């Protein structure tokens, strides 16, 4: 996900770390996103994933998908709250890792859980709502992963690209619903994810509302009387 | 044709493990004779639950399938009072004190009474029953329980003709257990009286030849092998003979998902997942789930003429 705006040059600081520091941070984040996979792989080999290792892998991969989705969605609010605009440069990688973990989650289900029993898999996707929404979330992530390069931004144009990538909100909601619907009785954990997601989306809605009011206030003198609809596209 | 090996040592002759283990104190303690005298004085004569199981006989009801390793049986548990993760009960159930322990058998009974664990152990010859256990979540184990038929206990209290169901109430101590109302506490389960009296229905006091570990429902639990695992209530404190179908905890939580009967049935899906297959713990590929968990020959008669889709 390419940066659309260019930042004004400032003194090198936490707000504008040198390029080498950003590269190092990117590398670190990359390794951190891979670390749980390494843990699962080693755990599988050493047989330390508990009595039901397939379940452990399914849960871990699903949890990391959801966490990375929320972390990806946290980039914009964090930038806005802290002024650390370079955080944006981590967002594409975080989003792609969310997708990769989602794929790993789905692959675990297809392979280790169902052993490619296509009839059972099709029945699950069609008949089990929690699997339906989980699958929908994964399918919706695919176009985002495919358009996560600069070329796609240029081809689509910034505005259309951004509109497409707003489906991340829907994906995250589907992900939390998927989690909520699969637990038997204890919704504490999915409720925590739901709260975090609500906060991340709530902040956006609030800022959008502020922006709308600001634009409205600015647009009132011209808009009044001519009945034209003022199109509002917040940044 | 029940094969019963006579117990060659009576339960009362066996040293309770807690005392057995106290020998260590004896050995390390200074002034051995004095300590020994004190220990002797502290020996309980009766009324205390035994920590070691008396001798038990094999059962023709046992399966010859490969047993699930003890480690898996004792670290992968659903015992929500101690936490809802599978590993929580093994971590937290140690806080529960199971001595002394009594089970009240009450309700519509001619001779209601309270039993200590020692009494339960001597009520009937103990048997080892190696049963399949199928969890409603889609996994299964093969577990060697030690216990006695629940029927033997019920016989003692002489159920009245008006008794139609049996309700099992389990231990709940908010000081050491989950306080969030994930389920309605105390955990309650129930069976129809004829199900409870069925020879397969076991009151288990042991596992793998030893007393039940706390996370598996110490000191006494139910094992109903043809029903989903949650029907087999753990750490039972009361057994009530009642006229009306008991309101069980899981049924209260989600009646459309956890019916009163909850017989293992590959043809009736849980609303959120299929029950056609299961993963035997320790195996990678799933295997087909058997009707009544493979105990149809013994129990299908209980449900003659019943629509098992409606009475899930």
Automatic annotation (TrEMBL), chain A:
Top-level lineage group: Bacteria
Cofactor annotation comment: Binds 1 FMN per subunit. Binds 1 heme b (iron(II)-protoporphyrin IX) group per subunit.
Cofactors (names): FMN; heme b
Membrane topology term: Multi-pass membrane protein
Membrane-spanning parts: 21-44, 64-81, 93-111, 131-151, 163-181, 187-207
Listed GO CC annotations: plasma membrane
Domain Ferric oxidoreductase, residue spans: 62-176
Gene Ontology molecular-function annotations: electron transfer activity; FMN binding; heme binding; metal ion binding; oxidoreductase activity, acting on diphenols and related substances as donors
Pfam assignment, any one: Ferric_reduct
Main location: membrane
HAMAP family, A to Z: MsrQ (MF_01207)
Chain's role: Part of the MsrPQ system that repairs oxidized periplasmic proteins containing methionine sulfoxide residues (Met-O), using respiratory chain electrons. Thus protects these proteins from oxidative-stress damage caused by reactive species of oxygen and chlorine generated by the host defense mechanisms. MsrPQ is essential for the maintenance of envelope integrity under bleach stress, rescuing a wide series of structurally unrelated periplasmic proteins from methionine oxidation.
Protein name according to UniProt: Protein-methionine-sulfoxide reductase heme-binding subunit MsrQ
From TrEMBL, chain B:
Domain Oxidoreductase molybdopterin-binding: 97-250
A Gene Ontology BP annotation from the UniProt entry: protein repair
Post-translational modification: Predicted to be exported by the Tat system. The position of the signal peptide cleavage has not been experimentally proven.
Domain of life according to the entry: Bacteria
Parts of the chain that traverse the membrane: none
Reactions catalysed, as given in the entry: L-methionyl-[protein] + a quinone + H2O = L-methionyl-(S)-S-oxide-[protein] + a quinol; L-methionyl-[protein] + a quinone + H2O = L-methionyl-(R)-S-oxide-[protein] + a quinol
Cofactor note: Binds 1 Mo-molybdopterin (Mo-MPT) cofactor per subunit.
GO MF annotations, alphabetized: metal ion binding; molybdopterin cofactor binding; oxidoreductase activity, acting on a sulfur group of donors, quinone or similar compound as acceptor
Keywords from the UniProt entry: Metal-binding, Molybdenum, Oxidoreductase, Signal
Cofactor(s) needed: Mo-molybdopterin
Entry's EC annotation: 1.8.5.-
Residues binding Mo-molybdopterin, per UniProt: 77, 80-81, 135, 170, 216, 221, 232-234
Subunit structure: Heterodimer of a catalytic subunit (MsrP) and a heme-binding subunit (MsrQ).
Its biological purpose: Part of the MsrPQ system that repairs oxidized periplasmic proteins containing methionine sulfoxide residues (Met-O), using respiratory chain electrons. Thus protects these proteins from oxidative-stress damage caused by reactive species of oxygen and chlorine generated by the host defense mechanisms. MsrPQ is essential for the maintenance of envelope integrity under bleach stress, rescuing a wide series of structurally unrelated periplasmic proteins from methionine oxidation.
Xref: NCBIfam families: PRK05363.1
Membership in a protein family: Belongs to the MsrP family.
Name listed for the protein in its UniProt record: Protein-methionine-sulfoxide reductase catalytic subunit MsrP
Lineage, top ranks: Bacteria, Pseudomonadati, Pseudomonadota, Betaproteobacteria, Rhodocyclales
